[in-house]
Amino acid sequence: MKLYALSGDPAKPCYVLSFKGLMIMLDCGLSISSVLNFLPLPLVQSSKFQCLPNWNCRDSDIQLEDGEIKECCGCAFVNSAPEFVPPLEKLIDFSEIDVILISNYTNMLALPYITEGTGFCGTVYATEPTLQIGRFFLEELVEYIEASPKESTAKMWKELEHQLPAPLNEVFKPKNWRHLFSMDAVNKSLARVQMTGYDQKLDIYGALQVTPISSGFCLGSSNWTIMSGQEKIAYISGSSTLTTHPRPINQAALKYSDVVIMTGLTQAPHVNPDAMLGELCMNVMMTLRNGGSVLIPCYPSGVVYDLFECLSVSLDNQGFTQIPMFFISPVADSSLAYSNILAEWLSTSKQNKVYIPDEPFPHASLVKNSKLKHFKHIDSEGFSTEFRQPCVVFCGHPSLRFGDAVHFVELWGSNPLHTIIFTEPDFPYLQALAPYQPLAIKTVFCPIETSLNFQQANKLIKELKPGVLVIPENYTQPPAIAPQKLDLVIDQPPEKMIIKFKRGEVIKLPLKRKRGRVYLNPKMAKGIIPQEVKPGVTVSTVTGVLQVKDNIHDLLPLDAVNDEVEESSSSSSKGKSTGPPQPHTQLRKIRYEWGTLDINLLLKKLAQDGFSDIKVEQGGPDEVTLVLPSEDTIIKVSEKTTEIVCGGKQSLRLKLRDLLLQCVQSF
Prior knowledge:
By secondary structure, this protein is α/β, with parallel strands linked by helices.
């Protein structure tokens, strides 16, 4: 079994597992941090960005397109449509992927890169909320980029990245970055997704059974178990043990796995999400008291639901009942409506509200009471009429490179009464603000992420008792955001087998198939006569034909094969004088081989049969390889297996097989 690491960001994972002849992709996260190297895309032309000075290379032989690189306060930015970092393509052929398992909607944004234009013809599995909310994320992303198209595309800068000023001189392999896909590619990609429910067992070509298990992170998020007849693999990605709006994590289904692959831990392990939520509410109230407004860059689903709920209560408690909240996103209305019809995917407390009946989320009543107003864009009908300050605005994109957030940063950036609060840990907030500098607006960083921190992950690992733990290498070192905190790592006790990996690596996992499941034909089962060999132990020999079809092993009676042979023989003898019929007793003769192969006897029999120039090569302590150069054939013999490699010569293989069987004991 092998694991291919196609992503270098554990928060946006994409891995491929090769197991039992199948290629299984685990998530297809899209790294968006690359967009921070580009200038923002304003909804209307911005004099600020247009007036930024061009950067020119000191080497006169290297000529960039005019205005390709702009400088702002000591930082350089690419003046072009933003580009993204898709999963690594050169490590594996996407057309060979048999199945893709999606754990949550934040980990599926690279799906169009995987499935469209690559020859992919496999199946994609995801829960219903993952598919629908993932669609919101993708539609919003595409609409943001297409709303502010760039006249030209910058390319030359990638040829001299190491000569560029910071931070462009530190970017990783920008030639692998790609422009965003189209809405058509999004629709075609999502049409391939088959929806599944928690604990639903899915058969994968008869070889494996995969099951989505509730992970407690967000609506519809799931961990996955991958099981063959005897082996169990658990993929843990984006999980939470906190009590929020999703259904709680199902730990029991993950216990005692042979291999656990763990990723998607928190990107803000140094802070407590509850404390950050309290700090956010406090900063909002302080800003409103001073007559300012608050901008909260956000995604169209997820933590934003909890922010609506918590902030609305705080506003009421502090006497700000007339302060409006605005939610601006191309998919705002769809997101708000959809979240209230997902009872089966919610926590018990949220489910109970549905049966009262009541909406599980308070934003429905907030909308009815005009405390939360939602619009597709700032130029949507009615927005200019409804908009008043002070207010709280939720809008995208958290990177501040596109979307309506760009407008509000430009609108409020020069006023120290206003505040911008960053809650998404995907983007370093100082880098997000860099192209807008200098700014007077107050900035607050309150990362709110509910996925497992390292203490919770270490506790979970102890309870699950995996045979082997597989983790990104990043998790064995303190995060860059808190390098002094040596406890922010996954524990590596000497008694536990832990395998680390990083982007671009292919690692072998120590999971060898020891046994397989064989289905015994009922007719054969009736004929079994057990013999007691010692008290409490009975054995019986079984002879039949092993049929393998669609990775399912069936043991069938010999009668079926003999009948086919007799029928074939009878058909071929029609119209010919063949003499007296020959009995097929040789087909019914039962012989059982056992014991160790006698190599010397095999060499002797091979020589007697005309095989010459046989070379004997000693491998390991119990491995011998016989090379037959004249036949272009190799016979590999080990303690448990014998393999004949003869380039498709079936008659030769059968002949060698018969000679091999003469060199073991039988009865």
